[in-house]
Amino acid sequence: MSQAATLDPEMARELRKGFTQPAQEVAHTLGSLSQIALRQDVGSIARKAQLAREKLRKPEFSLLLAGHFNAGKTTLLNALLGAIARELQMPMDILPTTAVLSRFSYGPEISVTAIHHDGTRVDWTIEEYRNEARLYGNTGHEAPVSAKLQPVARFEISLPLPLLEAGLVVIDAPGIGEDPARTSLAMAGIKTADSAILVTRSDVPAGNQELNALEQILPEASKVFIVVNRFGSMSDAERTRNYLEGRLRPLRSAPDGERLDDQVMIANCRQGLEAALAGDVHARTASGLPELERRLSAFLLNGAGAAKLDAGQRAIVRVHQDMLNALGEMIAACDADTEQARRGIDAARKGIEQLAEQAAKLKATLAGFRSDIERDAFASLERCSRSIVMKLPGALAQTPIPSLSTKLGQVAALATRRPAHEAGALIEAFVTDEMKDWAEQGLKRDLQRTIDLYAERIGQIMETSNRVLSEINLSLQIAFEGGAPASSVSAMDRVASGLAGFLLLGPAGFVLASGGWRSLVGLIVGAVSTKVLLMVVAVTIPALLGGPIVAALALALTFGGAVVGGVMGIEERVKKKAVEAATPLLLAIPTNEEVRTAVSRAIDQAFDEPAADLITGFDAMVAAESERLDNLARLNESTASAKQARRASALAAREEIDALVSGNTAALEAEVADA
Fold first, then answer.
1. Which of 163, 377, 627, 646 has its CA 20 to 30 A from that of 120?
2. From CA 388, how far away is CA 380, in angstroms rounded?
């Protein structure tokens, strides 16, 4: 640093000695508070106390450089380094360049050590640090870091500077607002530092992000200096200072506002750096940096020890209050009436009983569903068979029997019984088409009303069950103040998915199951057409062939006209006999045992599995909720005595920390007076 800021390191250390013993006492108290917090399972408070203790135990006084990215923090650091900057310039650019924390402390020689995330320590050269300890890129997008920098958590740099030798440690942090992760890294840095310098630009002084950061820094720091990095001339410095003071006024009046330095300093950091590199004392004075150096030196000599001790005391107050709050919550929780938990469990058990009732109702509903579906299916099949009987004569009338297409061929055809076979084939084709249409459309249409009715009933059961389950959870949350184990959501999900699958693919699914219904249609048509054929052959042929045969003999003896007269109207009579033979068979389809068995089997195949899944899921949900309640009841009973022991421990801890903090305050006041 410049000669104006040079101080005697030995004098600085000597002046801090008067605060060493009180600081150790405060550190001891913080350590004791940390141990008490650990015993009471309040790890976050224990870590806070331990961090404050470690800061007090360190002999140096640390100063964090913070600010928005591109505010000039690293430029200011280079300028403060003075002549050393000729050998070691921190990376700086118009883009954000500081990637990790860098800690500068005293050393007889310049050295750079990279501390990796795994704790490994690796020595870097000055050239490596200058070129690679920075972010790269000029696009404004997320800037990649060099491969060598990626594993680095922080840097430790030693410099032979008098101010550092006097016990000052400077921490350079990444800029605020450039990247969320690096902003968090910068804000975490203040927890390890005793004080801070907030650097802001003169063209955008103290933006909202910087003021928010300052609000977080003030409770942690013992002193905060504000430096405006001046861009351009210094002609309107006073106006800039007045504007900034207005921005800082709310913070100055806040509880921690007294730790803001009473003067906002304005300096042209780049001008100061260039003057330091050139050895131009006049330009350096004009830059405004010597005033900052003077105030830092004066603070290090006259205020750092007291400020550090004050920070420790404030940490004790915060930890003490946090512990009182935590212990108060523990005592209140232990004082909670266990009967309240029992009442909640009893209320939940009534809810379980309601769920069991809904489960029984669901099973009964599904049984009725299965019965009504089968009833409707047989009724639909009966309507279909009657419709076929009504349509059959007209359908056959419109379709000629091929073997009887000519009068002269009828005698030969009848002799081979071809008309009977072909009449049976026509009936089979017609019945097949009608049955296929019924299976694909008519049956579904006839069942839809029943499906919709039961879907509504099952939906009401599920809605009631969901409401009861919510009431169970609410009872337990109130009884245990949100501490009860979570509900069996997976079981309820299974019930819901089972319901969806059942309604979409269950009772309606067997209507659309083409394979099963093709077999059923084939069974029905096969039974009908075969019997029709037999009856047509057995009944029709003897009745029809007598006349033609006699006529044929007469033809042979007398004249051919007798044949024509004998066979007229045979096709109509064949069709009529075929219809008469088929009608009772078609009307008997719904009562046919083989057909009824096939229908029932198809319904079972489509209905049983989804219904079983739905019932199993519901039963699993009820069982899971019952088990949860049993566990809570056992837990509530077994922890009653433990709660009393916990309460006694919290009361004892509260008395212990009260006595510890009171004793520390009295002893500290006496030691500070002596110092």
1. 163
2. 12
Nearest Cα to 591, choosing from 328, 444, 316, 379?
379
What does the block give as tokens for 501?
């699958």
Residue 191 has pLDDT above 80, yes or no: no
Query: 614 near 366, Cβ under 8 Å?
Result: yes
Cα 201 from Cα 234, distance rounded (Å): 13
d(CA 604, CA 610) in angstroms, rounded, equals 10
Instruction: Indicate if the pLDDT at residue 348 is higher than 80.
Output: yes
Q: What is the mean pLDDT of residues 355-361?
A: 90
User: Above 90 in pLDDT, residue 121?
Assistant: yes
Tell me the sheet residues that pair with 113: 123, 156
Model confidence, pTM: 0.51
- Which own/partner pairs from 472-479 qualify as long-range (CB within 8 Å, at least 24 positions apart)? 472/347, 472/348, 472/351, 472/352, 472/625, 475/344, 475/347, 475/348, 475/351, 476/344, 476/345, 476/348, 476/632, 478/340, 478/344, 479/340, 479/341, 479/342, 479/343, 479/344, 479/345, 479/347
End-to-end CA distance of the chain: 30
Distance CA 106, CA 165 (A): 5
Structure tokens at 128: 């490596």
Instruction: For residue 647, give Cα distances in angstroms to 466, 591, 635, 638.
Output: 38, 78, 17, 15
Contact, 97 vs 140, CB < 8 A?
no
In terms of average pLDDT, the best of 45-49, 419-423, 610-614 is: 45-49
The C-alpha R_g of the chain, in whole angstroms, comes to: 48
Residue of 491, 473, 486 whose CA lies nearest to 347: 473
SS3 string, 437-494, reads HHHHHHHHHHHHHHHHHHHHHHHHHHHHHHHHHHHHHHHHHHHHCCCCCCCCHHHHHH
Q: Which two tokens stand for residue 337?
A: 């009436």
User: pLDDT tens digit string along 16-64?
Assistant: 666 777 778 888 888 888 898 888 888 888 888 888 888 888 877 888 8
* Mean residue pLDDT across the chain: 75
Return the closest-CA partner of residue 575 out of 396, 395, 388. 396
Residue 661 CB partners (closer than 8 Å, separation 6+): 29, 33, 316, 317, 320
Burial of residue 595, with CB atoms counted within 10 A of its CB: 0-12 exposed, 13-18 middle, 19 or more buried: buried
Q: How many CB atoms lie within 10 A of CB 200?
A: 26
Cα(135)–Cα(99) distance, integer angstroms: 6
* Distances in whole angstroms, Cα of residue 513 to Cα of each of 364, 399, 468: 25, 32, 37
Query: What span, in angstroms and rounded, lies between the C-alpha atoms of 229 and 175?
Result: 14
Q: Greatest CA span in the chain, whole angstroms?
A: 160
Q: How far apart are CA 453 and CA 56, in angstroms?
A: 77
pLDDT of residue 211: 81
308 is written with which tokens? 């550090």
